[in-house]
């Protein structure tokens, strides 16, 4: 079967990426030159985690077995308008299009294209036929369906522009963390990864904390101290300095540890190098608050359940599984039904 061939190829690709520790250093360095946010460490981290989570043959088989139409061939031209905020951030959309048997017309972010080109070139070594399923384009045209990711403003434009064809349009979302007075120090230390991984630029990164009333916020500062070196990255420091100066000029109340600014604020989204927080008195009030902001939330991080949301443990924000779809929209089901 075509699907079996693709699964085997993806599994081989994943094994090779893990074996070589990600992409070749020359590719990682070029990606860093094109996008200074893409440190070599982050490029290799993203690549190997994608290989482990998405390109394991057993995981792929189990994931696809839940779809009754998986393996049914119906090739369409699917335009993929990808983001470039973290390394290989659009790979899951490319993967879904590939296993669904469609042709991906990829409008990649110039900040991330070199990494995706390398991975798809490597895939051809295990599936020569895959080369007809991928095409990098400067402009999307002659598409039969579209998956587009952008900001809130671009997303509204995409909805109009691509409205004549089946589409998935994604806009700004962020990760949030729910923290209780009895949350452990280990959990709070792991939360640091959810905040600072990839400099906090991913839609799954935690940008807002919901703290149980009475929680000592200084526990957060103590737990994240190990991430202090992040301030040595010049672009991150520029963002920190901007936030610090802005809050001073506006005479806003805020807290800082010299590498992160924290401010009590109702908004879910926060700037790079800044973090918002709010307090809640009981679970009922918290649940009502989260329901009001559900369309802004990509994932919830906590050590206990939150009704209506899939909850990830502290430290797992940037470790989605194959079935953890962006915005909660089943990308593969959408593609299989075209």
Tally of domains? 2
CATH homologous superfamily grouping of the largest domain: Aldehyde Dehydrogenase, Chain A, domain 1
Secondary structure: number of strands: 12
What would you call the shape? globular
Strand order of the largest sheet: 8-9-10-7-6-11-12
Helix/strand order, N-terminal first: HHHHEHEHEEHEEHEHHEEEHEEH
Query: Could you estimate the helical fraction of the residues in percent?
Result: 25-40%
Kindly report the CATH topology of the largest domain.
Answer: Aldehyde Dehydrogenase, Chain A, domain 1
Do you know the CATH architecture of the largest domain?
3-Layer(aba) Sandwich
Radius of gyration, rounded?
21 Å
Q: Please tally the helical runs, counting DSSP H or I stretches of 4 or more residues.
A: 12
Mean pLDDT over all positions: 96
Content-based structural category: alpha/beta
Question: How far do the termini sit from each other?
Answer: 20 Å
List low-confidence stretches.
none
Quaternary structure type: single chain
Largest sheet: 7 strands, mixed
Strand content: 15-25%
CATH class of the largest domain: Alpha Beta
């Amino acid at each position: 079967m075509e699907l079996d061939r693709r699964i085997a190829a993806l599994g081989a690709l994943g094994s090779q990426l893990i074996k070589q520790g990600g992409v070749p250093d020359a590719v990682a360095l070029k990606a860093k030159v094109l996008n200074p946010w893409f440190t070599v460490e982050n490029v290799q981290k993203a690549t190997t985690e994608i290989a482990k989570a998405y390109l394991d043959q057993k995981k792929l088989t189990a994931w696809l077995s839940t779809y009754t139409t998986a393996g049914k061939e119906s090739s369409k031209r699917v335009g993929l308008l990808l983001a470039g905020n973290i390394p290989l951030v659009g790979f899951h959309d490319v993967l879904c299009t590939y296993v669904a048997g469609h042709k991906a017309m990829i409008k990649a972010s110039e900040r991330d294209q070199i990494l995706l080109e390398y991975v798809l070139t490597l895939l051809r070594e295990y599936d020569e036929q895959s080369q007809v399923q991928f095409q990098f384009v400067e402009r999307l045209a002659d598409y039969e369906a579209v998956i587009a990711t952008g900001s809130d403003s671009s997303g509204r434009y995409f909805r109009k522009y691509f409205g004549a064809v089946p589409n998935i349009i994604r806009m700004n979302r962020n990760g949030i963390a729910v923290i209780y007075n009895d949350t452990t120090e280990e959990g709070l230390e792991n939360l640091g990864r959810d905040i600072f991984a990839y400099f906090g630029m991913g839609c799954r990164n935690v940008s807002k904390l919901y703290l149980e009333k009475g929680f000592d916020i200084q526990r957060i500062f103590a737990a994240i101290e190990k991430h202090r070196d992040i301030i040595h990255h010049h672009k991150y420091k520029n963002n920190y300095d901007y936030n610090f100066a802005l809050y001073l000029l506006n005479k806003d109340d805020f807290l800082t540890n010299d590498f992160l600014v924290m401010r009590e604020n109702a908004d879910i989204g926060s700037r790079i190098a800044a973090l918002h927080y709010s307090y809640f008195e009981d679970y009922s009030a918290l649940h009502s608050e989260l329901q009001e902001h559900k369309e802004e939330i990509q994932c919830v991080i906590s050590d206990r359940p939150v009704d209506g949301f899939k909850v990830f443990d502290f430290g797992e924000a940037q470790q989605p599984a194959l079935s953890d779809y962006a915005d909660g929209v089943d990308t593969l089901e959408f593609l299989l039904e075209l």
